[in-house]
Every structure is written in C-alpha cells, then in structure tokens.
Write a structure and sequence with these properties.
The chain has 426 residues and is α/β, with parallel strands linked by helices. The chain has twelve helices and 13 strands.
Length: 426
Amino acid sequence: MTTTHLETDDCGACGDYGSSRRSLLKKAAVVGAAGAVTSVLGDAVTQTVFGATGGRQPVLLLLSLRGGADGLSMVVPHASPAYARHRPDLAVKRSSLLQADATFGLHPGFKALEPMWRNGRFAAIQAVGMKVPNRSHFEAMELIEDADPTSSARVGWINRMIGSLAGADPFQAMHLGGSQTPTSLYGSQPTVATTDLEALDLPFGEDAGLRRTLHAGLAQMYAGRSTPVGRAGTAAIRVADRARSAGSAATAKPAHGARYADDDLGRSLARAAGVVRAGIGARAISIDHGSWDHHEGLPWRMTSMITNLADNLAAFFTDLGSSGDLVTVVTLSEFGRRLAQNGSYGLDHGYGNCVLALGAGVRGGRYYGRMPSLGTAARPADDLLVTTDYRHVLGEVLDRRFPGVKISSVFPGSGYSTARRVGFMA
C-alpha cells in the first residue's frame, strides 16, 4: 500500500523539499492491502476498518518540527566556547537563558513552559538523531519516520506501535492538521489523517434531514455486500457516524481558560486536546509544525518560532487539565543545523539535534543526553555529533507509557533495552 507524505514546504532555499514531494506525488497510488480498503471520505484519507473506542489510556503526541530545527538554539550549550566562537552573531546570550545549569540553558522563547520545567514535567535531551547523517529533508523525514533501516517495506513506527495494541481502530492513530498520512502512521493498521474530524462526516452533514436520507440510502446500498467495496462502504458509514460525535467534542471551546494562537499549530493542538478529552480511543496523535528551515535570519525567526511553540504547548496542557496526566508530548525534527553560522545570518543542514519531552511520565526539570565536544577535529563538517539514537528516546516513552508494546518490533535493530535507557521517563 502506498500513500502520499505530508511536507510543509516553506523552505525557499531547499530544492529537495518541493522537488521530492512532487516526485512522490506523481508516483503515489492508493491501493488495497492486507484486507483493508483505503477510501477517500471528506478531505481525509483513511483505511476503513472499524474498532472499539478507548477510555482513559496513555496518549503519545508526536510534534514534528519540519525543516530541521536548530537544537543548539533551543537547548543552548552555553558552557562550550566553540558555540559562541562559531556563532558570533547568532549565539543566544548566557544572561538571557532560562533554567540554565552548568552546561545548558533554554532559549528565552520557552518562557511559557518554564512552570512545567519547574514542576518536573518538561525535559530536554541533547545530541539526538539517526546513526548516519542525512541532510536531505525528504529522505531524512522518510528514514526517521520509517525507523526500520533494515527493511525495504514502507511502514511507519507509529503504525507498528498501533499494531502492538488491541483492536484495529482508525482512531487509535491520527494525524491532525493535514489530510495526507505522514510516513510514521503509514502501514497496514488503520489510521486517520484530517484537518478536522467533522470533515469525516457524510456530505450534507450540516443538514440533519439530508444527512439522514443519505445515511439511509448508503446503508441500504452497502448492506449485505461482501465485496471489498461493500465492506469499505459499510465501515466508512460507521466511521462517519463516530467522527460526527467525536468531532463535536474535539472542536469544543478550550477549557480552563486556555488560549491558543490563531494559527495551524494552535488549531491542531486545540483539536488534539479535544480528542483526548472526548476519550475516543486515540493512542497516538501526530501534528506537523513547519518553517524551521532557517538558512537566513535565524535570530528573530527562532525567537518567534520557539515562543509560538511554547505558548501553544502551554495552552494545550492548560486545556487538558487533569487529562494532561494521560499525554506525553515528544518533539522530533529530521536533523539539526551546523554549528557555524553561514553568510546569511542562518545555519545550514546539520546532524544532531535536541528532543523535547513534556507531560505524563516525564522526569522533567533536567537536561539529558551526552553532549559531545564542539569545535574539535573529530566533529565532521561542523556538525553536532549524535550520542543518543532517537529510537532509544522514543522507545523509552513507549516502554514506560505503553507496556504492551514490543519495542523490538516497533524499532527493529535499534538495540533498545532498559539498561540503555536515557532516564528521562519515570
């Protein structure tokens, strides 16, 4: 089965963003596999296999920072003389950092999340990434989301994760904010990708009379048909019925005085909070947040981006209230940036990066990961070296929050074990 992969193309300097995406779209096709039929319903692509709802269960929210965010601006290695030396115009000043220890400090844009850091619910892991550098946006995204370099099959790690859980419910794993399934969710298990759950409803859903008529007609047409199309049609009607009620709950007014930014990230996180509060069975939620490809004008752009990210995440956990005890948020970007600034007051594609972890189960208020030396001959091409495999970070979240998941099946060949845990999850 193949599907399209969502990329937020706001990188004017990187040709592989647009060209690779166009190439994939030309080759992509939607076909049936493993007894499931992929259908288009509303503006979403969803495999129409239906299962039971869930309750108050742990939820992983993967926030993908598309474009290659600069982890050295987010979690600043202020103790390294090489950091300031190679970034004479871009280095974040030590005096402005939040929650600084002897080695690291947070960019001042994280101010809205500082209470979560103090309360032990926000942590950062530095020098994280893939074993082998890859500076192509498209290829790195595919590799990091597939997370199985030994296989030629295109199956995402979240899809494998869902396969380890009970049931076959398309609402267990969903991508919010776009109708194209990212690689992490792609595979044989049913998933949902949509800008809005209510978009999964039948046509004319806003007119109760027309909807009832259409519902009855479609139900009669597909009833008793044992063909793949018949089974898909029947399942699609059930999904639409469930999405209708779930969508209303997911788009309810934010709770506890939470205030999101009126932008894509704010809207997606608000819907995610509604999905969690509605208890419709989501176990993994994916959200894309683009525009992190800063080849030029990095200082003001990073400040704006980080502030927006922090403000929206703070609103998300405020909105969740007690349901925040269910949700663990992890950020991931396809690669980091070079240590040295370029001639446009920006940074080019690099290697190692930071990961942020917030919420349920996080042992926060600390920096994790082994920081390599910067500015040495052993550092290739001014990159931050990777000392922690990103699959070990994700594996630790699954290990501690989803005990029924077999980590070796989700991340084959990663070598994850409890003895090699980073330690940021309780």
